[in-house]
Amino acid sequence: MSDAAKEAFDALTETVGRVTVDDPKMQAENVDVFYAEKQAIYDVTLDVAKNEVVAMIGPSGCGKSTFLRCLNRMNDTIPSCKVSGNITLEGESLYSSAMDPVMLRARVGMVFQKPNPFAKSIYDNVAYGPKIHGLANNRAELDDIVESSLHRAGLFDEVKDRLNAPGTSLSGGQQQRLCIARTIAVSPEVILMDEPCSALDPIATARIEELIDELRENYAIAIVTHSMQQAARVSQRTAYFHLGKLVEVGETKTIFTNPSHELTENYITGRFG
Amino acid sequence: MDKLHLDQHISQQFNQELEDIRNRVLAMGGLVEQQVTNGLTALLENDGDLAEQVSRSDYEVNAMEVEIDEECIQVLARRAPTASDLRLIVAVIKAITDLERIGDEAEKLGRFAAELSSSNRTLEYRKELRHLGGLVRSMLHDSLDAFARLDADAALTIAQRDEDVNAEYENLTRLLTTHLVEDPRRVTEILKITWCARALERIGDHSVNICEYVVYLVKGRDIRHTNIASDHSSTDNNDETS
Amino acid sequence: MSDETTQRVRATLKKRYLKEKLFRGFGITAIAASLGFLVILLGSIIYKGMPAFQATYLKVDITLNEDTLGVGGTVSDAEMQGANFSGAIKSAMRDRFPDVKKRKAKKNLYALVSSGAEYALAEYMINNREQFGQTVSLWLLADDEADALIKRNKDLSKPIRRGEFKNDSSALVTRLNKDQLGWLQSFKDAGDTDVRISSTFFTNGNSREPEQAGIRAALVGSAYTLLITFALSFPIAVAAAIYLEEFAPQNRWTDLVEVNINNLAAVPSIVFGLLGLAVFINYLQLPRSAPVVGGVVLSLMTLPTIIISSRAALKAVPPSIREAARGLGASPVQVVTHHVLPLAMPGILTGTIIGLAQALGETAPLLMIGMVAFIVDIPGSVTDPSTVLPVQVFLWADAPERAFTERTSAAIMVLLAFLIVMNLAAVLLRKKFERRW
Question: Where are the domains of chain C?
């Protein structure tokens, strides 16, 4: 980090730009995350609005993935991970005793970096979530859910003749769309995506990005990405994380033409910082 | 963020490309400025040779515009610049268009100077252009300087000087109209001088555009077609908050 | 690359390729050597063991009447069982060789027929009552020494390797004497000897007489023992592995448990035998020599192996699968049972089979709990006294009769076959569980 950038970072006490939105789906307030003694996230406050794609960008180890995983308590299984601050979904606190993590993850779905279909058929991959949550009363209902989920993930036409083929027989992009179909089959309210295209080729990436744009109609989406171009393409708002701090939040169109903070500028233009 | 830090990209190649574009623009600006100066001198000093030279060397400016354009397109396609880099490229693409137009106007000055050089009689009328020419030249010079130094505040001040240029142009038009009435035999010459005044006024406008691009490049704000004065103050406020 | 670099690289190329060739050569030699040893071992075992699946029979005309048997033709089966079949056989042998008069010579003559022949005869009589009072030609099982000579088709006219022929390699190695060889030759000349494929080896329990000794008791004992071992160790080990791998918190206690499990895998098996003796037999008063105790002891020994391999298999399941399931809202137990366990199952099964194979070949701990007993009866349940295949091999290898050599080799063959069957079962199970994606 250059001296100037280091100074700017040390001086940073408050996120630049507006962190709240008018119609929030999820709200994170003053979130700190510790891994044992090491603090991974410093006082992050950020809203996720309804029908919005918010992109989180930043260099490796900046805490964006950690923050994303706090939004559906995926960090629970790491015993040394402590989350403080308040995160709410529709006003309900995520980390209160009243919130069941299993229930929460049905409402806040997650798509991962590497396509990770289960070692099951395409059908069973999508049907798994509805099955364990008892969302379908009978086979016909389950069929409907599977079909509509695959449709919404833009995969149905490609796989309708081989629903019983293994999920892993699909191409990487198809697998990732299968994972998205699997996630939306549970009818979540929010979808978290952790670098969903990092393992895909540009065409598959374009398909997923198109899909994300369509999904925005019905879901709130938070996406972590290493590709700034992707953030620029799919998101309405962009949040820039640096060394655990949320440096800047703003409308994507502003962030990518005229960011306010020097660190954001340095990062998105590929300067030393 | 008054500096662009063009040398701080992780990609050295990218640094060089941007630096090269900037230098070429400044060189083009210098050339255009020289053309304007020469055109004006030829007009005022009744120097036919210089006038010929000015009217024939516009192709250099045009070639530079094409080259810089090509370079900018390459950067856009291959580097996908963002933020200040993006603004620099956009500002450059726009600025060179204006510079090329200024070059055209300078060529016009040269052409009229060549045509007028055959008659010494209009020299006294042409002297009327001196003041306007001085205003415009210094404006062009200062705006290119602001571009080189990325000085948005200076650019805003320079842009405001266009009002003086316009006022001087108004005066000059009125004066030339009077001459026209008084000396109807010189209609053609006086009309040509009016067109020269018009060209100088256009150069002033293009200089204002360049100033606007400087502001856009540095502040990230588009101040075209707005009240510059009020915008100036609000930009300052914005500066303090960010 | 500059010219100089190219040249330098070229200079080393030859050496590098030579090294590679050498390395490959060593590898192939090693494999060939081990294959050779394996072939020699298996070959010798099969060569030695094959005769155990054959038995020699002698054809003797036996008179079955009240004089010879000492009972009437209409007595009950039980009484018939107790009749003097031994006498009938002896008189038949006497009839065949009327010249034999001396008491000692007669005894030698009778010894040509197996002592078990009378039981076969009794069974024949009970099943064929209408032949009472008749003289019938019957094939009687030959004694082990006669059996060995006939089976291998030895030249009976050769001298016996004893006394002056001590160093004659072509002389016969047998405990029979000259007379017995002569009688045997006469049987052979009359075409009254027959070498048949015999199932005796698989149907009988152990016996003092090698020609009657069989593997069945040990086989059934091994099966019972392994059943107990599997039933105990598999679920316990898998449950332990799942808990340790998926649920247990990472702290000093789990580390301690892990270290102990690893150490247990290295404990000499005889220690487990001592433990079994002390705890299960002396303290809990469980029956001695029983597969149930053997199974428990062997599962103690097998547990660490299965736990370690199961943990490795669970660890090998990609974390992304767990994340995917958790991300969909599966509870921790659902994550394990629906996704992790099915994917780890092939690995777990492999570990289990390795553990069970180890248990199958184990002798030492079973000696400690008395499974080394002489078992004639086929065990009917897991609490009956029994022995196991490796112990049987051990016992026979120790027996003085030469005919037990072939039984030993045959028992080893059965043990190997048992292992192959187990491995086959494992492969089939793997195929069934393993998802081909």
Answer: 57-196, 216-433
Tokens of C104: 């000692």
The reply to whether B221 touches chain A by the CB within 8 Å rule is yes
Residues in A closer than 8 angstroms to C326, CB to CB, are: 74, 77, 105
* Distance, CA of C348 to CA of A261 (rounded, Å): 55
Pair of tokens at residue C273: 């035998």
Q: Residues for chain C: how many in total?
A: 437
Q: How far is C263 from chain A (nearest CA, A)?
A: 27
CATH match for B12-232 among 3.10.350.10, 3.20.20.70, 3.40.50.300, 1.20.58.220: 1.20.58.220
- CB of C323 within 8 Å of a chain A CB? The answer is yes
Put simply, the answer to whether B82 touches A271 (Cβ < 8 Å) is no
Distance from CA of B241 to the nearest CA of A (A): 10
**Under an 8 A CB cutoff, do A132 and C321 touch?**
no
Run of H or E including B93: helix B83-116
Per-residue pLDDT of chain A (273 residues; tens, 9 = 90+): 566 667 777 777 777 878 788 888 899 988 999 888 888 888 889 999 989 999 999 888 888 888 998 888 888 878 788 888 889 988 888 888 888 888 888 889 898 888 888 888 899 999 998 988 888 888 888 998 999 889 888 888 888 888 888 888 888 888 988 998 899 888 888 999 988 888 878 888 888 898 898 888 888 999 999 888 899 999 999 999 988 888 899 999 888 888 888 888 888 888 875
ipTM given for this complex: 0.82
Residues in chain B: 242
Q: Is the CB of residue B76 less than 8 Å away from at least one CB of chain A? A: no
CATH C-level class of C216-433: mainly alpha
Q: Domain coordinates of chain B in residue numbers? A: 12-232
Whether domain A3-116+190-267 has CATH 3.40.50.10300? no
Residues 6+ apart with CB under 8 A from A243: A9, A61, A62, A63
- Cβ <8 Å between B220 and A271: no
CA distance A47 to chain C (A): 21
Instruction: State the chains in contact with C (3 or more Cβ–Cβ pairs under 8 Å).
Output: A
pTM for the model stands at 0.75
Q: Is the CB of residue A38 less than 8 Å from the CB of residue A1?
A: no
